[in-house]
Design brief:
The complex is a heterodimer. Chain A is of the alpha/beta class. Chain A contains 14 helices and 15 strands. Chain A has two domains: 142 residues, Aspartate Aminotransferase, domain 1 (Alpha-Beta Complex); 253 residues, 3-Layer(aba) Sandwich (Aspartate Aminotransferase, domain 2), CATH 3.40.640.10. The longest helix of chain A has 21 residues. By secondary structure, chain B is α+β, with helices and mostly antiparallel strands. Helices cover 39% and strands 17% of the residues of chain B. Chain B contains four helices and three strands; from the N terminus they run αβββααα. The mean pLDDT of chain B is 94. Classes of the chains: A alpha/beta, B alpha+beta. The interface between A and B is medium-sized, with 15 and 16 residues.
């Protein structure tokens, strides 16, 4: 294996066209990667290459374009499998994104559940890992249980055993919070869930962009993430599951491409992954994702993670010096991503974001699709800065200077 | 008026919070949320002789939302209901770039810069929508 080049933040930034050559020529301080990361050039090239040289439908045609498109689509699946540490690429299902993946799981895995069975989620979840399960609960009489969070915005795993019964069939938790940045202790979750025979699903939307994974080693059963947070195109994501579990699950959507044989007497479904990919899939997007994970898989993540942690520390230190600022999440850098949500007394998150936009600092304000968590912390919303490997000290400088200015002018 | 969104007049109006509070036995009440940010406005109204006799609001929102609610608190009481309808329509037009009307609602010009911030227009309109719904509730024209 070729040794990885040591992480170089400036070189990394150059790989992202929008940051290397920002619109309007002004430096772009993009601190909203937890919502949508910028797209890496390798993904853009792969999409363009497909659209201009191999565009056709997949798994259907015999002409050379169809063969080339199918080959590129399959290669993308294998690239994702490598990034996830998965030997069997057919366990990788392309979906529309994390939300699509969780809805698929809630319908297909959920259809195997009986009234009175339980699913555990937490206060830390994105709405995408709450609402599909609530809808399942309404459809099938499944009971939803909710694990609390600690004061510093982590899953309260001390209380996990008390929230699990023998009726619990699935523990569905975030791998890393899109609000507090807290990274879950997966080993402890899996061990506790296994003790009652529950399966484990992790929402990897925030963690997957932070370097390659080894999902089988984590001991979990299902995993989901989105391309657009992993430096790839929008409109595509992944559900991974262990083969025996996926094979036991009925399809979610019916249509072309997911069948073996159709007649009015009955339909036989295809095997995995096709049975879960009805209709024409997001072909170009999946190919772009394949290139994005190829790029991310080649990054020196030890170096990138240290760089991100240093920037995160600078933001946390800077916030500590701003009058009325309060971080919703872990105070330190241990087991946390560079996702920093905060409030400032007397300042509304949208006013903060709007003010910072004047300095070309892109932030996110609001409830971050985590209203139960906002309620838990007694706030309507927060301002959030999120760090990716392409961020720089200049981005942090602009953020902190803009916050000082916003406090002086608006608070 | 400059293109500065957070000009001093607007910030001062928001901080002034004119009309914040509750009415005793209002004829109509409406609460509206902005699902994008979690902001919430409750408007309470009393009607008499075709006019808005009294109005009060409880607002949890950004400066734009707070300022719009305060403008209503300052100007709406005593107005004919037809003039209120016109003011609500004018607020929608102003945030899209139209000039503010003459008269007591001329202060709507303070929200003119919102025309360049499309995602923030609803922040201004939330209190006006709540006002319209509260009046409709008082008239018995909505549930």
């Amino acid at each position: 294996m070729t040794p990885k080049k040591p992480f170089d933040p400036a070189a990394c930034r150059e790989e992202f066209p929008l940051l290397a050559d920002p619109p309007g020529g002004k430096p772009m301080h993009y601190l909203d990667s937890a919502a949508t990361a910028q797209t890496v050039a390798a993904a853009l090239r792969a999409v363009r290459r497909h659209e201009t040289m191999t565009r056709a439908n997949v798994l259907r045609g015999v002409h050379f374009l169809a063969e080339a498109a199918t080959d590129a689509y399959d290669q993308a699946r294998r690239a994702v499998a490598r990034y996830l540490g998965v030997a069997d690429a057919e366990e990788v299902i392309f979906t529309g994104g994390t939300t699509g993946s969780i809805n698929l799981l809630a319908h297909s895995f959920g259809s195997l559940l009986a009234e009175g069975d339980e699913i555990l989620v937490s206060e830390l979840e994105h709405h995408s890992n709450i609402v599909p399960w609530q809808m399942l609960a309404e459809r099938r009489g499944v009971r939803l249980r909710v694990l609390p969070v600690t004061e510093d915005g982590r899953l309260d795993l001390d209380r996990l055993p008390a929230h699990l019964s023998a009726r619990c069939k699935l523990v569905a938790l975030t791998h890393a919070s899109n609000v507090t940045g807290a990274i879950a202790d997966v080993g402890r979750i899996v061990e506790t869930a296994r003790a009652v025979g529950a399966r484990v699903f992790l929402d990897g939307a925030q963690r997957a962009p932070q370097g390659p994974l080894d999902l089988p080693a984590l001991g979990i059963d299902f995993y989901a993430f989105s391309s657009h947070k992993l430096y790839g195109p929008t409109g595509v994501g992944v559900l991974w599951g262990r083969r025996p579990l996926l094979e036991a699950m009925p399809p979610f959507m019916g249509g072309g491409g997911m069948i073996e044989q159709v007649s009015f007497a009955g339909t036989r479904y295809a095997g995995i992954p096709r049975r879960f990919e009805a209709g024409t899939p997001p072909i170009a997007e999946a190919i772009g994702l394949g290139a994005a994970v190829g790029w991310a898989g080649g990054l020196d993540w030890a170096g990138a993670t240290a760089h991100e942690a240093r920037l995160t520390g600078r933001i946390l230190d800077g916030l500590a010096g701003i009058r009325g600022a309060k971080v919703i999440g872990p105070a330190g850098l241990q087991n946390r991503l560079g996702v920093i949500a905060f409030t400032i007394d007397g300042l509304h998150p949208h006013d903060v974001c709007q003010w910072l936009d004047r300095r070309n600092v892109a932030l996110r304000g609001g409830h971050h699709c985590a209203q139960p968590l906002m309620e838990r912390f007694g706030v309507a919303g927060t301002t959030r800065a999120s760090i990716a490997p392409y961020n720089s000290d200049a981005d942090v400088d602009a953020l902190l200077a803009g916050l000082d200015e916003a406090v002086a002018r608006l608070a | 008026m400059s293109d500065e969104l957070y000009h001093r007049k607007l910030v001062a109006r928001a901080r002034g919070a004119v009309g914040k509070g509750k009415l005793d036995a209002p004829d109509g009440r409406a609460t509206i949320d902005n699902p994008l940010c979690g902001d919430r406005v409750t408007m309470e109204v009393k009607l008499a002789d075709g006019r808005l006799a009294a109005v009060a609001h409880q607002t949890r929102g950004c400066l734009l939302c707070e300022a719009a609610a305060a403008l209503i608190g300052a100007e709406a009481a005593g107005e004919r209901l037809s003039d209120i309808d016109a003011a609500v329509a004018a607020a929608k037009s102003v945030v899209e770039g139209a000039p503010a009307p003459a008269g007591c609602w001329s202060a709507l010009e303070e929200f003119g810069p919102v025309r360049t911030a499309k995602s923030r227009r609803d922040c201004v309109l939330l209190p006006f929508r709540a006002l319209a719904e509260a009046i409709a509730a008082a008239r018995g024209t909505t549930g």
